[in-house]
TrEMBL record, chain A:
Belongs to the bacterial solute-binding protein 5 family. This is Heme-binding protein A. Residues 94-471 form the Solute-binding protein family domain. Residues 1-23 form the signal peptide. GO terms for cellular component: ATP-binding cassette (ABC) transporter complex; periplasmic space. The lineage of its organism: Bacteria, Bacillati, Bacillota, Bacilli, Bacillales. GO terms for molecular function: peptide transmembrane transporter activity.
Automatic annotation (TrEMBL), chain B:
Belongs to the binding-protein-dependent transport system permease family. It is a multi-pass membrane protein. It is found in: Cell membrane. GO terms for cellular component: plasma membrane. CDD domains: TM_PBP2 (cd06261). It comes from the Bacteria. It comes from Sulfoacidibacillus ferrooxidans. This is Glutathione transport system permease protein GsiC. InterPro entries: BPD_transp_1_N (IPR045621), MetI-like (IPR000515), MetI-like_sf (IPR035906). The chain crosses the membrane at residues 12-30, 103-123, 135-156, 168-189, 227-249, 269-292. Residues 95-296 form the ABC transmembrane type-1 domain. Keywords: Cell membrane, Membrane, Transmembrane, Transmembrane helix, Transport. PROSITE patterns: ABC_TM1.
């Protein structure tokens, strides 16, 4: 999981520690719908305009400035207020125009965007400069934007700008007020996905110039479907419909009220009372304490929407520290873990993972893993391999985990128990998320639990970020290094999308899996509870929640 | 009295400085890097170093502390690493809600605890006293979160009389305050009972009775005034801790106050906010202790400074 996203989810989860289950019993299962105008819980009727949707929000939005939004709650708030050049279509991974249509040059290096006729809430028009300003803000060191690394050094001239050697980014050009041209250093199969991230939203240059960073971070001025009407610190955010939204016919709702309320018990009761339209509008998922009472209650079971996330929870094995330096030991440990047990302890909110790339990733997932990259639960074989590797009596080690999410400790304890069955005695070192992360990024943890959630639907976001030698030790904290893999990953980063590129990533993943720096544990499942009268909700695999498509049916 | 107050203020400042040193050291000695957490995984090492520099994290701990105290003396508690807002703003945004909850909870405690304590003392070792004592024991023993959840479920959810959680008008304060009162009133009741029994056996109470004072006059005019002293002592500490943030209650009810802000800051290792909220709480403890000591002299003229 992207660490910033993981951080916020962790905070939310830890806020939920004191909840308790106070409701019914039964069973359920449900799936999300795929289009905006169908419903999560069945039925498809004509959308109704008007009404107010009330939602509980587990914590305030850390940021409303798109350049700063790199945690799950901020990202999703920014999406209500701002628009990007391109976006995802419905519940798919397909990129479609948002504020601009586009063409790509033959060489794949020059992108030309034709900007639609749209206005900011204050009436200022959206122009090419609206995007150039935002790119420059993201690239500016003083902004401390998490988006910088996605476009630098990819966009021509970005490196010089970041280093303070240029006042403009040469690869960003306003051909005229409605035409933006972006030139890359090399072709990139993922650039359009990057552009769909909230970092690269249209901002009003005049507004930006007139206000301080902190003001902009709490007073958005966007083109989005909803405007921020008021924010009462610690109490609520009130959003009202943008009557001049550039997409005709939406949004349907007149108003959205986010009540800040981090009590899982209160969140559950509010939903059951019908006061709120959903539990877990955002990427955090239903709080752990609320999930079992909901799925076990026949009244609400059919209101649960679930979708496997494009994410992998994994167990890291350090390739440079301790007995796991030995690839034979790492391979032995792969056989020691029963992933079905982990799914059970996560209340079924996960599916077993057998590789790094999640099955819901549109490319790079390997249906038929080669025998040397495939592991199934076999403790007897694990013991045999450990003995062969020189550890007939096993060894002592430490598992590092964090306390921000109850599930991380559960997984660590389960693996600890499974390892003990093959003679590996592990003690668990649990700390706060920040402490854990700082330690993890030194690359010195023997073993650890972590997760990675896609930034965009491309295997490079997992493989290049987590296994390229140049990512040691911050992201590649298992210290995995393989020249052949590096060559494949570097090659894939400049190849055009298609089967040949997919095969390069599959090849890289198979090599990595055969050397076992990770034990992929599970692919987590996102769950939301949606009232039957809330229509139009769907889950995009990239977890962009479409409040502009939601409408309220009579109830 | 004025000399005493000045002496106490001086001592309080020393206490607050001590607290600030301990909190600062504990928060920064944790091996974590807020700079990396702020900029995210895709940011360059150069950017991380720059943020560290901006936050002053590259300086030795004592230097950072001196800078912090320098800013503090100018009323600047720093800026939240996570929320990117001044800590003073974050605290002031929530202080009102916590104050409302704390004062309501405290008054509710007194309204429940004091009458029970008096009744219990007057009917010592009689049936009424046994019933009250058992109820008080139950009240003391119940965990706050359990009482809170039960009230939420029955009063808020099942009966729908009050909001089950969140922050808003006075309606949102009642259940959390009642939760604190139920679990806290028993202390007042027990304290007042034992104090009242002591006082009621005093010579001056016997004298008052002998002079024909009515029972109400004896209890409320003579006994209660002296018996209330230990209750006041506890009350001062109690309300100070309440102002510091009724952390568990705010968490159970999703009530957005100082306590919740502190919990979030600890989870995020948001050191400026941790420092700010801890100092805010400590300041209240110190101030209320001083206030209680001064009030002793007003309530009981025998106490002089």
């Amino acid at each position: 999981m992207n660490v910033s996203k993981m951080r916020m989810v962790g905070v939310i989860a830890s806020m939920a520690m004191l909840g308790t289950a106070l409701a019914g019993c039964g069973t359920q299962s449900a799936t999300t719908s795929q289009q905006g105008n169908t419903t999560a819980s069945g039925g498809s009727t004509q959308p109704v305009y008007g009404g107010t949707l009330t939602l509980d929000l587990l914590s305030q939005f850390p940021h409303l400035d798109p350049a700063k939004a790199y945690d799950t709650t901020s990202e999703e708030a920014v999406e209500q207020f701002y628009n990007t050049l391109v976006t995802y279509q419905g519940a798919t991974n397909t990129i479609v125009p948002d504020l601009a249509s586009y063409t790509v040059s033959d060489g794949g290096k020059v992108y030309t965007f034709s900007i639609k006729n749209a206005k900011f809430w204050n009436g200022d028009p959206v122009t090419a400069q609206s995007f150039i300003t935002e790119f420059q803000r993201v690239l500016s060191n003083s902004m401390q934007s998490g988006g910088q690394g996605f476009v630098d050094p990819l966009i021509q001239g970005s490196a010089a700008y970041v280093a303070g050697k240029a006042t403009n980014v040469s690869g960003l050009k306003a051909i005229n007020s409605s035409t933006l041209q972006i030139t890359l250093m090399h072709p990139s199969a993922t650039f359009l996905y990057v552009l769909a991230m909230p970092f690269f939203s249209a901002v009003d240059p005049t507004y930006i110039a007139a206000h301080s960073e902190s003001y902009i971070d709490t007073h958005p001025m966007g083109t989005g479907p909803f405007e921020l009407a008021s924010y009462t610190p610690g109490k609520d955010y009130v959003l009202t419909k943008n009557p001049n939204y550039f997409v005709k016919g939406i949004p349907y709702l007149n108003k959205i009220v986010f009540n800040i309320n981090n009590s899982p018990s209160a969140v559950l009761f509010h939903f059951e009372q019908g006061q709120t339209g959903m539990i877990s509008w955002n990427q955090g998922g239903i709080p752990t304490e609320d999930y079992l009472p909901l799925i076990n209650n026949p009244t609400y079971a059919s209101d649960i929407v679930k979708q496997t996330e494009v994410a992998t929870d994994y167990f890291g094995l350090n390739c440079a520290v301790g007995p796991t330096q030995n690839v034979a030991v790492r391979r032995a440990l792969e056989y020691a873990v029963n992933k079905q047990v982990i799914v059970r302890i996560l209340d079924g909110l996960a599916v077993p993972a057998n590789q790094i790339i999640p099955p819901s990733m549109p490319s790079g997932y390997e249906q038929n893993l080669p025998a040397n990259a495939s592991y199934s639960y076999n403790p007897a074989l694990a013991k045999k391999l450990l003995a062969k590797a020189g550890y007939p009596k096993g060894f002592n080690t430490t598992i590092y985990t964090d306390n921000s999410s109850p599930t991380d400790l559960k997984m660590a304890e389960a693996v600890q128990q499974m390892f003990s069955q093959v003679g590996v005695n592990a003690t668990i070192n649990q700390s706060s998320w920040n402490t854990f992360l700082a330690s993890n990024e030194t690359g010195k943890q023997n073993m650890f639990t972590l997760a990675w959630l896609e930034d965009f639907p491309d295997p490079s976001d997992f493989l290049n970020t987590l296994f390229n030698t140049n990512q040691i030790p911050v992201n590649d904290s298992t210290n995995y290094s393989n020249k052949q893999v590096d060559a494949l990953l570097n090659q894939g980063s400049i190849m055009p999308a298609g089967t040949a590129r997919d095969n390069v990533y599959k090849q890289a993943q198979n090599i990595i899996m055969s050397q076992a720096p990770w034990i992929p544990l599970v692919n987590p499942v996102y769950a939301a509870a949606v009232q039957p009268w809330v229509k139009g909700f769907y889950v995009n695999p990239n977890l962009m929640d479409p409040l502009q498509y939601i409408w309220i049916a009579k109830h | 009295m004025i000399a005493y107050i000045i002496r106490r203020i001086g001592g309080s400042i020393v206490v607050l400085i001590g607290i600030s040193i301990i909190t600062f050291s504990l928060a920064y000695l944790v091996p974590a890097n807020p700079a990396r957490a702020i900029v995210g995984p895709h940011a360059s090492e150069a950017l991380v170093l720059q943020v560290e520099k901006q936050l002053g994290l590259n300086e030795p701990l004592p230097v950072r502390y001196v800078h912090y105290m320098g800013n503090l003396l100018q009323g600047n508690l720093g800026t939240s690493y996570v929320l990117d807002q001044p800590v003073t703003t974050l605290i002031s945004q929530r202080a009102g809600a916590t104050a409302q909850l704390a004062v309501t909870a405290w008054i509710a405690e007194l309204l429940i605890g004091i009458p029970i304590g008096i009744i219990s003392a007057l009917y010592d070792r009689k049936a009424v006293d046994h019933v009250v004592s058992i109820l008080a024991l139950v009240g003391i023993s119940l965990p706050v979160f359990f009482v809170g959840l039960e009230l939420m479920y029955w009063v808020g959810f099942k009966l729908g009389w009050l909001p089950v959680g969140g922050t808003g008008g006075f309606n949102f304060v009642i259940l959390p305050a009642l939760t604190y009162a139920i679990t806290g009133a028993a202390y007042y009741a027990r304290l007042l009972k034992s104090s009242m029994i002591d006082v009621m056996s005093s010579d001056y109470i016997r004298t008052a009775r002998a002079k024909g004072a009515s029972p109400n006059r004896v209890i409320f005019g003579h006994a209660l005034r002296n018996a209330i002293i230990p209750v006041m002592t506890y009350g001062g500490i109690d309300i100070a801790s309440l102002f510091g943030g009724v952390v568990v209650i705010e968490d159970v009810f999703g009530y957005s106050g100082i306590g919740q802000l502190t919990v979030q800051a600890i989870n995020n290792l948001d050191v400026p906010v941790i420092m700010g909220t801890v100092l805010f709480a400590a300041l209240f403890v110190v101030l209320f202790n001083l206030l209680v000591d001064v009030l002793y002299g007003i309530v009981d003229p025998r106490i002089t400074y």
